[in-house]
Specification:
It is a single chain. α3 runs antiparallel to α6. By secondary structure, the protein is of the alpha+beta class. The strands form five sheets. Strands 1-21-18-23-16-15-14 form a seven-stranded antiparallel beta sheet. Strands 2-3-4-11-6-9-13 form a seven-stranded antiparallel beta sheet, with no helix packed on it. A five-stranded antiparallel beta sheet has the order 8-7-10-5-12, with no helix packed on it. The chain folds into two domains: 194 residues, Jelly Rolls, CATH 2.60.120.10; 104 residues, 2-Layer Sandwich (Alpha-Beta Plaits). It is elongated. It is built from six helices and 27 strands. β19 and β20 form a beta hairpin.
């Protein structure tokens, strides 16, 4: 099939727009400084009092499912009310003072600097019970690109019962923390700390790191492979170099770095340069290949309800206990009038089941399992004809 010049230009423009949203910017323009003049006041999920914040990086600025970076102040007596998210994960970052954090109804006091992840389906809240405003940030990553949600409990958490020891995940950003892991890099004097890893999150959020660069030191260049990152300068000043272009950074600056870009820092200030790093997996290409078996069926009309029930009550439970099982879909053919409208190729097969495994070996193990000996006859007893074919998955995207 030949494409017109206009079509090729359109494809090129879309590819540039969606895979590298702002990479054509000058580096100085990519770096955003937190400016209190841009703060807006928000009641924040029926919290104890209003908070003041601005959005520094938004949902359209990166190719991954990074949703936003909000940063600002929580005045004395202010807070974020008790609420849920079911399609996004957030992380509250406290850079000064102390506050009462609530996760799933349990409340504890944590002192800055600290990060508290709010995982999918976990209720969370924050209250500033001190007499001083707090430096605060909120990072978010979504399951679906650019889509968020919230369910408010209309609960300020004021005067909540306190647990002396937190019973939720958090990470201290101080050098003495026993919970952070230090990972090796070639930079002799630079300290790289992994605060939270991918096992904490359910979205494509991959890591939360801290980089501490002593005065006068610098980092080696590092290339982002299969990853985008958001950087926030918590303390100090210096310079950042991205793909050979250098710009100055200082406390409360933030900026994104895109897939395949290289980045390095130099501390040109008078104190440690401390940078918080949020990593999000870029999932346009599978990191681990998978396979899909596609099975087509001719199901008589009188058996269709039973076939659909069989899939949910027998076939799926039988597969879910198998090693390497990734997921499945039951598809029913469009009605004839819809098929005619879209000029679909005629077929006598009216149902399809797609099953996905991490390897062909594990799929074959499923075929030899006792569960398969129950599920497969349950399916074929309801059909007049069937066939199948297998595929190696080369790409995957869910939106």
């Amino acid at each position: 099939m030949k494409l017109s010049l206009n079509a090729l230009c359109a494809i090129f423009i879309l590819a540039v727009f969606f895979t590298s949203p702002v990479s054509a910017q000058e580096l100085d323009d990519r770096i955003v400084h937190q400016d209190p003049a841009n703060y807006r006041e928000s009641p924040a999920h029926f919290g104890a009092g209003p908070i003041h914040y601005t959005e520094m990086i938004g949902r359209r600025e990166m190719a991954t499912n990074f949703l936003y970076l909000h940063a600002g102040q929580i005045p004395a007596g202010g807070g974020i009310g008790h609420h849920f998210h079911h399609s996004i994960e957030e992380m509250y970052v406290l850079l000064s003072g102390e506050a009462e954090f609530t996760v799933n109804g349990h409340t504890s006091v944590l002192k800055a600097p600290v990060v508290v992840p709010n995982k999918l389906g976990s209720s969370h809240a924050l209250v500033n019970t001190s007499d001083e405003p707090l430096r605060w940030m909120n990072f978010a990553v979504s399951e679906v690109k650019a889509k968020g949600d919230a369910f408010d409990l209309v609960d300020s958490r004021v005067d909540a019962k306190l647990d002396p020891v937190p019973v939720f995940v958090y990470g201290q950003l101080d050098k003495e923390s026993r919970r952070r892991a230090v990972f090796e890099q070639s930079d002799e004097n630079v300290e790289y700390q992994r605060i939270l890893g991918p096992e904490v999150f359910s979205t494509s959020w991959n890591h939360v790191d801290q980089i501490i660069i002593p005065r006068g030191d610098s980092t080696d260049s590092r290339r982002l492979e299969g990853m985008e990152e958001v950087y926030y300068v918590m303390e100090g000043s210096g310079s950042v170099t991205i793909d050979g272009e250098t710009a100055s950074v200082e406390m409360d600056d933030a900026f994104p770095v895109f897939v395949d870009e290289t980045i390095s820092f130099a501390n040109t200030g008078t104190a440690d340069l401390k940078v918080l790093v949020i990593g999000i997996r870029h999932e346009t290409k599978l990191q681990s290949p998978a396979i899909v078996l596609q099975m087509d069926f001719v199901v008589p009309e009188e058996n269709q309800a039973a076939f659909e029930e069989m899939y949910h009550s027998i076939y799926v439970p039988a597969m879910k206990v198998q090693e390497g099982y990734l997921g499945s879909k039951l598809l029913r053919l469009y009605p004839q009038e819809v098929a005619d409208r879209i000029k679909a190729i005629p077929t006598e097969f009216n149902y399809q089941i797609q099953i996905s495994y991490d390897t062909e070996e594990n799929r074959r193990s499923w075929e030899l399992s006792p569960e398969h000996d129950i599920a497969w006859p349950a399916a074929t007893s309801l059909v007049d004809e069937f066939k199948w074919r297998g595929y190696e998955v080369q790409g995957s995207n869910t939106n």
